Structure formats: structure tokens, C-alpha cells
């Protein structure tokens, strides 16, 4: 059987042969070469298909065409982790999503081959499917996909592929309160693991700084970097472990023309060092367009061009669209698009099966790819991961304990540098404590005003709830974006991040929470008993811990604007259940008792009241002129509130259980969002259910 492919004009007597790369010692000089004698072994005639520079060749399928991947070897990086080169192929790739209007097909059976050592640009008008193709190839989207994705001719192992690839998203998601050198150092410690010693990691960081031209701002805080510097830092963070595959989504967005030229030049240099660099870009200038080695164009989910930028104008001329020399080909191809043109271009390029190349080296690799696409026969290529990568390290480069310690140190450093936030938190707790203490000044032992003391308990609980629930609700959505980038790029496990994030907030909660409780407790003249004070303080801190867990759950589930509305709506019924039965505690219905047990605020309020009024407290003081002081015995107040006979230990257990539940739920919600963003499908399923 035979198969056809497109390539640049060359001698008509070239035939079948093996295409092999040089061995490891020659990687710097020759990554994929063959001798002239090998080229001339066969003399099968290859027919012309067009008068243009492009010729069509036939290749026998009886002899396998192999290409041994070479190692990425950067001369400028002497301290680096060894990585194999990776070629990416995809065949008959279809991607459809469910929307409220029905199923929508984003990609329609496209084919392609992205070669190592080349900078590939995915282009197309809005809605063409550029980002979808990028997300699928990077593994960011893994559901609702049909077709085949290969690495070096073999089915992709996603777990190992994630270790060898990095995805740099359009938005520069960075740690603002770290310096450039600190950001890179933490990234190196997380991503390289045991492959290099600490000294080599530091040297690798310095070399990456020099390579990307950000060494001059090594001690500058990230939040003070320019747009171009932030983009370079984003690339540098993913380059520290020397990945052979780099995906970039719209890397030039938001940059000026000078920064765009520098960015594309950087990507060209990275590709020339042996990497597979793939990016999406929206209508570059003519000079930038010709800087790319390979262009893959999409329109309405179909491939309309696949090959060298130099071959685009001749290709368009073949189908009747002549681009003037003064016109930018990248603009022209999309200006002439209409329904008929898209169909014609897709048919001519066979939806990506045909690759238009410039030189012999590209043609050689195009042969293997074209054979895969045109004949649907897999070629046996060496698996990219065999003997190239320690499979024991496929999970994560560093251990859980190492990840946890590094993340804890990083988050602690950022938290301590947020001086504005710390001062705001200090004044918030201090001012609120003084205000609350003034309102309820001296009521702690007043038997004539027991319900004022009950209101004091409610106020303390509400303060801790809203103080600690709103912070994560407003800040965690942006944290999830950064987490998605680092987690997807295989920096660390979700467990290590979650544990470090939970522990980081505890010191400030304990410090400022204790300050608040200390002030209000003594200003309100509560009993000077160490046990009661300790129990009351512990209840307040446990309430803050549980509320923060609820905030993390909400913040990880929805956007901050939605969370700001949702949080009060969720807390209102919880607070109503917490205070239900005030004044007729003995008559609370069993069904209401069960409902009240679903509110963590009930456990907090019962715990606070029990610590102040229970545990055998002596009679409270009553005014002499009062003939009758009903609540002189504090147990009567607990009885009328429906809180008599409650163990404070059970309240601690209830709060701890809710806190653990909220955090576990938040963990699994975050995990769902990290895995194909499954939460977005819930509203669609709900609407379908309502429609029947």
C-alpha cells in the first residue's frame, strides 16, 4: 500500500529509507540527519502534483519509517534535568460540548503533527477552536474527545506526559509578594525534586534567569514587574525543569509590539534547543508570522492550513486566492474566509493530513506523519518514556513532606509580607472588640440582664463567622486559578497544597482571635475563672476555624461575586436555627431539634453559653431594689434557651466535625475543578432536569 504527502521540491529519485537521529553524543550538532548515500539507496520515481514548489510523493508502507527522538540539550543550561524530545501527533480529533442549546462541535476530525525543535502557531478567528485544540493536546481537557493523540508515534501516557510538558496560560498567574529569584527557587525545589542537588538547582535557576533576560530584576517583587517581564517569568517558572514540550495560550496578549517581538524570539530560541513549542496567537504581523516554523490554521473547527508559513501564499494561490506582496498573509487568509473557502481549503489540506514543508529535514519527518494520517497505520517509533524517564517519579518530582514544607514556607513568606492585610486585620479585631466590649460593658454577672449576656454570645459568634468566612470567599477564587496552573503543570499534589494552605492561616487566626476574645471577655465582666475563659476562647476559635472551612468551600465552588451573595444567604437560615427556641427551650419540637443540629452555629452558640452559664456557676448578682430576680440561677437561663444539660465537649466535637466536613468537601470540589472543571456541567444537568 502507498501513502502520499506534501513536501518541498527536491530530487525525484528519493525513495524509502529510515530517518534516524544522531546518538546522545551528537545531539548538539545533528538531531535528525542521514547520509547522502542512504538517501540515494532507492530510486523510485516521484510524480509531480503541481507546478508550484510543492511536490507529492508516494511512500511504501511495507518498510517502517522510524525517527529516534533525541534529547533536549541546551548549551546555555549546563545544570538541568535530562528530558527526551517529544513529537505530538493527533488524528481525526473531534471535540463536542453540551450547551443549553444542545451539543456543539468545536473540532471536526482534525489531524496534525507538531515536531520537536519547531515553534508551532495555532491560528484562527474567534471561535475557530484554537484554545480547545491547545487544551486537548496539553491534557487540560480530557472529556468529550474522540480521536487519537500520540507522542513519538505511540499512544500518549497522560500521567507521564504531564511530567514532560508545561502549559503557560494566557493570564500571567504569579505570586505577587515573592521576588523573581524566590519564585524560581521555589519552583525549582518543587519541580526538579531529587534529579539535581541543591547546588545544581541554584545554578539552574541562575542560568534560566540569564537565558530569559530577567536576571536584572532578580530581586524585584513580582507585582512590580512589567508585562513583558511577567511573561518571561511565567516561561522561566516552567523552564526550570527543562520540559521538552511547552504550550502557551495567547502569549502575546496585552504586550506592546516590542515585548511581542521579544516574546516570539524567546519562543523561537527555546524551540531551536530541541523543544516542542506550541502556542496560540491571534493574527500576528507579517514579520512575526514568518518567525514561526510551523503554522496550523483553524476555521469553524476544521483545519484550513498545515505547514510552513512560506508555503501559505502559494497554497492560497492554488485555490484561487492571490495575496498581494504588500499584504500580510496572516490577515489575508482570514479575510477571504467564507463557507465555500473554508470547505475548499479543508479539502485541499485534507483537514490537516497534508503538511506543506520547506526543506529536506521537515520533509523527512513529514513522511512519517503523513503515513500515519493518510494510511491510518501506526508506525513503530521508540516510546518516548522507555529508558528516558524514571517511571517511579511520574507521580510527582518531590515527596509529600517536601512539597508540604516548601509550600508552607512559600505561603508563610507571602502572608508575612502582606503587611497591609495584617494591619487591617489587627485594627479590625481590636476596634470590633472595643466596640462590642463597650456595648456589653459589665453585663457578665448581672442577673437582671441575662438576655443581654446571651446577645453578647451571639455577637461574638457572628463576628467570628463573618470575619473568617468572607476572606476565603473573596480571595480563594483567584487562588484557584494559580493553583490550577501549578497543579496541572505537575508542581505538587493537591493534598500537600491543601494542608499547607490550611495551616498557614492558623497563626493569624489564633493571634488576632485571642486578642479579640481577651478584650471582650474582660470588658463584659465575665467570670474570672480560667476554665470558663479557656472554654469560651476555644469555642470562639473553633467557630472561626469552621467558618473558614465554609468560606473555602464556597470560594472554591463559585466566583467571588457569586460567593459574596451566596454566603449571607446560607448563613441566615443557620443563624435562625441557632437561636430558635429562645424563651421556650423545653417546648422545642423533636423535628426542630434535628434541624437545629444541622447548623454549626447552634453548636457554637450552645458552647459559648454553656461556658459562661453552665458547669455549676454560682448565682449571678441582682440589684437590691428588685423584688424578684428570676435568672439569678444561671441554669434557668440555659433551660429557657433549650441548652440545659448540654456537654461542652459535644459542642467542640460538633464544631470540629463541621469544620472537617467543610474542608473535605472543599478539597473534593477543588479536585473536581482541577479535573476538567466538571462543576461547570452541573447547571446544564440541572436545566435539562427541569425541562424534563
UniProtKB/TrEMBL annotation:
<keyword id="KW-0547">Nucleotide-binding</keyword>
<feature type="transmembrane region" description="Helical">
    <location>
        <begin position="648"/>
        <end position="670"/>
    </location>
</feature>
<dbReference type="GO" id="GO:0140359">
    <property type="term" value="F:ABC-type transporter activity"/>
</dbReference>
<dbReference type="InterPro" id="IPR017871">
    <property type="entry name" value="ABC_transporter-like_CS"/>
</dbReference>
<dbReference type="InterPro" id="IPR003593">
    <property type="entry name" value="AAA+_ATPase"/>
</dbReference>
<dbReference type="GO" id="GO:0016887">
    <property type="term" value="F:ATP hydrolysis activity"/>
</dbReference>
<keyword id="KW-0812">Transmembrane</keyword>
<dbReference type="Pfam" id="PF01061">
    <property type="entry name" value="ABC2_membrane"/>
</dbReference>
<keyword id="KW-0813">Transport</keyword>
<feature type="transmembrane region" description="Helical">
    <location>
        <begin position="536"/>
        <end position="558"/>
    </location>
</feature>
<keyword id="KW-0472">Membrane</keyword>
<dbReference type="InterPro" id="IPR050352">
    <property type="entry name" value="ABCG_transporters"/>
</dbReference>
<feature type="transmembrane region" description="Helical">
    <location>
        <begin position="456"/>
        <end position="477"/>
    </location>
</feature>
<dbReference type="InterPro" id="IPR043926">
    <property type="entry name" value="ABCG_dom"/>
</dbReference>
<keyword id="KW-1133">Transmembrane helix</keyword>
<dbReference type="Pfam" id="PF19055">
    <property type="entry name" value="ABC2_membrane_7"/>
</dbReference>
<comment type="similarity">
    <text>Belongs to the ABC transporter superfamily. ABCG family. Eye pigment precursor importer (TC 3.A.1.204) subfamily.</text>
</comment>
<dbReference type="GO" id="GO:0005886">
    <property type="term" value="C:plasma membrane"/>
</dbReference>
<keyword id="KW-0067">ATP-binding</keyword>
<dbReference type="Pfam" id="PF00005">
    <property type="entry name" value="ABC_tran"/>
</dbReference>
<feature type="transmembrane region" description="Helical">
    <location>
        <begin position="600"/>
        <end position="618"/>
    </location>
</feature>
<feature type="compositionally biased region" description="Polar residues">
    <location>
        <begin position="1"/>
        <end position="10"/>
    </location>
</feature>
<dbReference type="GO" id="GO:0005524">
    <property type="term" value="F:ATP binding"/>
</dbReference>
<dbReference type="InterPro" id="IPR003439">
    <property type="entry name" value="ABC_transporter-like_ATP-bd"/>
</dbReference>
<feature type="domain" description="ABC transporter">
    <location>
        <begin position="88"/>
        <end position="325"/>
    </location>
</feature>
<feature type="transmembrane region" description="Helical">
    <location>
        <begin position="570"/>
        <end position="588"/>
    </location>
</feature>
<dbReference type="InterPro" id="IPR027417">
    <property type="entry name" value="P-loop_NTPase"/>
</dbReference>
<feature type="region of interest" description="Disordered">
    <location>
        <begin position="1"/>
        <end position="50"/>
    </location>
</feature>
<feature type="transmembrane region" description="Helical">
    <location>
        <begin position="422"/>
        <end position="444"/>
    </location>
</feature>
<dbReference type="InterPro" id="IPR013525">
    <property type="entry name" value="ABC2_TM"/>
</dbReference>
<feature type="transmembrane region" description="Helical">
    <location>
        <begin position="497"/>
        <end position="524"/>
    </location>
</feature>
<protein>
    <submittedName>
        <fullName>ATP-binding cassette sub-family G member 1</fullName>
    </submittedName>
</protein>
